[in-house]
Design goal:
heterodimer, A: alpha+beta, Outer Surface Protein A, domain 3, 10 helices, B: alpha/beta, TIM Barrel, eight-stranded parallel barrel, globular, binds fe (ii) ion
Chain lengths: 260, 297
C-alpha cells in the first residue's frame, strides 16, 4: 500500500479517534461484505466508554443508586472525556470523580462528598498490609518514654472531612435500606479504617480529630497532649490522650509505637 | 483433603484451569461440599488477572495468598501494551515482577495488542497492523520484558473487529513471526480465533494449522455474543459448539496443552464452570493423538 502509516502515527490517529472522534481513520480500515469501516471502528469506540463506565459503576455504587442510571451515565461520560486513564490498572481510573463533580456541578457539593467517601472506602479496602499493635504493648511504655513516643498509624487509616450526610447513605445501602436524601451538613471529620479485611468508619469529636491529625503530622505524644489543652483541662489531658490511644489500638488503627 | 474423582481424567495432560474470579473465592477455599467431608475441586490451576493484584494489600492479596496455597497459579495481564509505540512502562514491569515473585506462576502472559500511547491507557486490547515493522517492534520489546522478568512470556491472539489496509501478513503469520523472533510462547485463545474468522472471513482451521506446534503453551476457551454483523468477544456465555469443535481440532494438532475457560461476566456458580471444564477434558481425551493418550502404568 502506498503511504502506509508507520506504527506510531497510526496509533496516534486511532487513539485520537477513539478518545475524541477527532481523527479520520476510516480510509485505513478494511471494509468488506461483513462490515464497513465505521461499524468496525464503532465497536472499539463504544466498548471504550462502556468499559470505563462499568468501572465507575462498581467504584461508586451508592452514588449510582442515589442519582440513578441515566444521570450517572451522563456524569460518567463527562468524566471519561475529562480524565482519560493513565494507569495500568482500572483500579485508579475513577480517583478524580469527586473533584470532577465539584467542578462540573458546584451546586451539588454533597454528591461530591459521597463520591469522596466511596473512593476513600476503596482506598481503605486494599491499602498496604501492616502489623497491628496489641493492647498489651501499652503496659510496656516506660513513664519517661511517653512524651517523645510517636504513634504510627496503619496504612489503611484515613481521615476525611465531609459537609454532608454521605456516610448515612453508604450505611443504608449496605443494610439494603432505602437511601436517605443527600443533603449538606456542618463539616465533620470521619475516621475510616480496616479491621479483619472489613471497612469501618465513625465520626470524630473535635479533640480526637485534632489528636489524630497531630499523629498524622508525626508529632510526639507530649506535643499531642499540648494540642489537646485547647479543649481539655491540663490535669485531664494525659489520661484522655492515653484513653484515645487505647481505643485506637483496640480498633487496630495503630501499627507501632516508636521510641527514640 | 481427598482428591476429587475427576482428577484422574487429567493425568494424561498438563491440566485444566479456570480464571480466578472474586465471586468464587469462598467456594474455592471451602471445596465443593461445605462442611467436614471436604474434597478439592477438580481444577488443576487458576489464572489470575495480574492487574487486579497490583494493590497494596487487604482482601485481594489475602485471598490470593490463601488460594495460592491450594492451587497452582498462572498470571495473565492486560496492560503490558507490548505493541505500543510508547516506551515500555518500567513501573508496570516492576509491579509485574514483584507479583510474579509472590505468585511463582508457571506462565506469565499478555496479549498481541496495544492499550494506548502518550501515557494513556484505553483499557482495551487494540488491534495492531500485521506488518514486518510491527513484528520487529514487538519482538524487540518481548525480549526486553523476558530479560527483565527472567522468564519467557506468552502472548495471546486477541479478538479483533477491524484490520488495517496496509497489513502484509495474516494474523497467524504475524503471531508466529513474533513468537519466533522474540522466542516467546503463544497462548492460543480458541474463541478469539473463531471470533476473528467470523469478523474477517477466514477458515479458523487454517489459522490453527499454521501455528508452530512447539510455541503453544496454553489455551483459552470462552464464549461470545453477536452484535449485528460482527461477533464480539464478551466472555459472558458458555463455550459454544463451534468453539468446542475448533478446540478438538487444536488438540489434534497441538496435543495436550494446559487449557482453561475464561468467564468475565454473568459469572455462574463455580460448579457450573467446573462442569464446563469437564467437557474440555472429554474433548481433549477423545482427540489427543494416540501416543499422548498412553499413560505409563
Ligand atoms: Fe483469552
Amino acid at each position: 500500500m502506498k503511504n502506509a502509516p508507520l506504527l506510531a502515527p497510526l496509533q496516534q490517529r486511532l487513539q485520537a479517534h477513539l478518545l475524541a472522534g477527532d481523527a479520520d481513520i476510516e480510509a485505513l480500515i478494511v471494509a468488506d461484505d461483513i462490515a464497513d469501516a465505521s461499524a468496525r471502528l464503532d465497536v472499539y469506540a463504544q466498548a471504550y466508554r462502556l468499559r470505563l463506565l462499568d468501572v465507575l459503576r462498581s467504584d461508586y455504587p451508592v452514588l449510582l443508586a442515589r442519582i440513578g442510571a441515566a444521570k450517572f451515565a451522563a456524569l460518567g461520560r463527562s468524566y471519561i472525556d475529562a480524565h482519560p486513564s493513565d494507569t495500568p490498572s482500572v483500579r485508579w481510573f475513577g480517583r478524580h470523580l469527586a473533584e470532577h463533580l465539584r467542578i462540573a456541578q458546584p451546586s451539588q457539593r454533597a454528591l461530591a462528598d459521597l463520591a469522596a467517601f466511596e473512593w476513600s472506602q476503596g482506598e481503605v479496602f486494599d491499602a498496604p498490609d501492616a502489623p497491628v499493635l496489641k493492647l498489651e504493648a501499652m503496659a510496656y511504655i516506660a513513664a519517661e518514654a511517653w512524651g517523645e513516643m510517636r504513634v504510627i498509624l496503619h496504612p489503611a487509616v484515613r481521615l476525611l472531612t465531609l459537609a454532608s450526610n454521605a456516610p448515612a447513605l453508604v450505611s443504608a445501602q449496605i443494610k439494603a435500606k432505602p437511601l436517605p436524601r443527600i443533603k449538606t451538613a456542618a463539616p465533620q471529620t470521619w475516621l475510616l479504617w480496616r479491621r479483619d479485611y472489613l471497612i469501618h468508619w465513625r465520626a470524630l469529636g473535635v479533640e480526637e480529630c485534632a489528636a489524630l491529625e497531630a499523629v498524622r503530622a508525626d508529632l510526639g505524644f507530649g506535643d499531642i497532649c499540648e494540642r489537646l489543652c485547647e479543649w481539655i483541662a491540663p490535669e485531664q489531658v494525659a489520661i484522655t490522650a492515653a484513653g484515645m490511644l487505647k481505643r485506637w489500638i483496640s480498633d487496630e488503627l495503630i501499627s507501632e509505637l516508636e521510641f527514640n | 483433603m481427598t482428591p476429587h474423582p475427576n482428577f484422574k481424567s487429567s493425568h494424561a495432560n498438563p491440566g485444566f484451569g479456570l480464571g480466578l474470579r472474586t465471586e468464587h473465592y469462598e467456594a474455592l477455599l471451602n471445596g465443593p461440599n461445605a462442611g467436614d467431608d471436604v474434597i478439592e475441586w477438580p481444577i488443576d490451576w487458576l489464572e489470575i488477572l495480574s492487574e487486579n493484584y497490583m494493590v497494596g494489600g487487604g482482601k485481594p492479596l489475602h485471598y490470593l495468598d490463601r488460594i495460592a496455597e491450594r492451587y497452582p497459579l498462572v498470571m495473565h495481564g492486560v496492560s503490558l501494551s507490548i505493541g505500543s509505540s510508547d516506551p515500555l512502562d518500567r513501573a508496570y514491569l516492576i509491579q509485574l515482577k514483584a507479583l510474579a515473585e509472590r505468585v511463582r506462576p508457571k506462565f506469565i502472559s499478555d496479549h498481541f495488542c496495544w492499550t494506548g500511547i502518550a501515557g494513556r491507557n484505553l483499557h482495551d486490547l487494540l488491534p495492531l497492523p500485521q506488518t514486518e515493522e510491527a513484528v520487529q517492534h514487538i519482538a524487540r520489546r518481548v525480549r526486553e520484558v523476558q530479560d527483565f522478568l527472567g522468564q519467557q512470556i506468552l502472548l495471546e491472539n486477541v479478538s479483533s473487529y477491524l484490520r488495517f489496509q496496509h497489513s502484509t501478513l495474516s494474523e497467524w503469520e504475524f503471531i508466529s513471526a513474533v513468537a519466533k523472533e522474540a522466542d516467546c510462547g503463544l497462548l492460543l485463545d480458541i474463541n478469539n480465533i473463531y471470533v476473528n474468522s467470523c469478523n474477517h472471513g477466514f477458515d479458523p482451521e487454517v489459522f490453527i494449522d499454521a501455528i508452530p506446534r512447539s510455541r503453544v503453551q496454553q489455551i483459552h476457551l470462552a464464549g461470545h455474543s453477536h452484535n449485528g454483523q460482527l461477533v464480539i468477544d464478551t466472555h459472558d456465555h458458555p463455550v459454544p459448539d463451534p468453539v468446542w469443535a475448533l478446540y478438538a481440532h487444536a488438540v489434534r494438532r497441538f496435543g495436550a496443552i494446559p487449557t482453561m475457560i475464561e468467564r468475565d461476566d454473568h459469572i455462574p456458580p463455580l460448579a457450573e464452570l467446573v462442569a464446563e471444564l469437564d467437557i474440555a477434558r472429554k474433548i481433549s481425551a477423545a482427540n489427543l493423538p494416540r501416543m499422548a493418550q498412553m499413560v505409563p502404568a
